[in-house]
Every structure is written in C-alpha cells, then in structure tokens.
Design goal:
Layout: E1 7-11, E2 22-25, H1 40-46, H2 67-70, H3 74-93, E3 108-109, E4 113-114, H4 135-147, E5 153-155
Antiparallel strand pairs: 1-2, 1-5, 3-4
Helix pairs in contact: 1-4
The structure holds zinc ion (2 copies).
One zinc ion (ZN) binds near residues 57, 59, 60 and 103.
Amino acid sequence: MTTTTRQIMINTEGNWPNFCFEVLPVSREGEKGKLPKGLYASVASSFGWSINAVQVCRRCGKPLDLSAFMDAKIEEVGTDGMDSAREEQEQWEAGELAVRCESCGFKKSKKLGANTWCEHNGDGTVPCKTCGAKTGDFLSAAYDFIMANDGLTADDPGYFDED
Ligand SMILES: [Zn+2]
Ligand SMILES: [Zn+2]
C-alpha cells in the first residue's frame, strides 16, 4: 500500500472576502481551502515560518531589526564580517545578545529588561506575556510571509480531509 502525502500550496491570487490567500491541496485540482485570519501563524508555520521570526522592542513594541546579523551576506560584509555575524547570531539565539531598537533607541534597562530573543508563550494567536508582542504582530508577520511566498508548497499538516 502506498500513501502519498498531500501537498498544500500558497495561492495569493484568491479573492475571497476576509481571506487574502488560499491554500490549495495540489493533488486535488480546483479545490480551495479558505482559512480564517486567526490561522495565519499556523498556516505560515506549515511553510517553514516561525513565530520566533517576530521579535519586538520591550519598550516601544516596534519590530527589532535583526538584519545586521541574521541576513548578513558574504558579498556585502566579507569573510570577517560573516564570522562576526555568525557569532552574533549564536549569541542572539542563546538569548545573550541585546539589540538596540531603531525606533526608540532602547536596548536594556533594569525595569524593562533587555531586547533579547524571546521564545514567546503561545502559538501566535495570543499576545506574548514575556516581550509584549501583540497578536497583530504575529498575524501581520505571518501574513507578510505568506504574501511573499506565492506558489510555495508544503506537506499538508491536516487542513484538508482525507478522501
Ligand atoms: Zn523601541
Ligand atoms: Zn515574546
């Protein structure tokens, strides 16, 4: 007996009220999945996104810019730059690096703590009690990911019923 894993695909061409994307089971042509807003984080996660991609300033709540070490490119920063970017990335992921907020300049204080990596409580459908990230922060980041990845496919984690 062979089992085939059903694939889902991001299709941002869909034009449903309240739904800005569709997830199509590739194996069933024409069938459309419609998913409510609250599932954005869960859907994006199926395609490799993580709520941990969302990291906000402990003081002003704006997203932190992590591109200096998370998206460093060897063409731009050179070999030495890549080495220190990797080191910073490791420190960041271990929760040892505090990042200065571009919007308000906050980095750390006794009262508010530090702008360090947050694991977040919950699954992106509730605000994070630790860092203050709001549900909307998770939803909009997940939405941006989905919209930027039209055509991406993944194994269906169970959005569509088996035949
Ligand atoms: Zn800030
Ligand atoms: Zn958090």
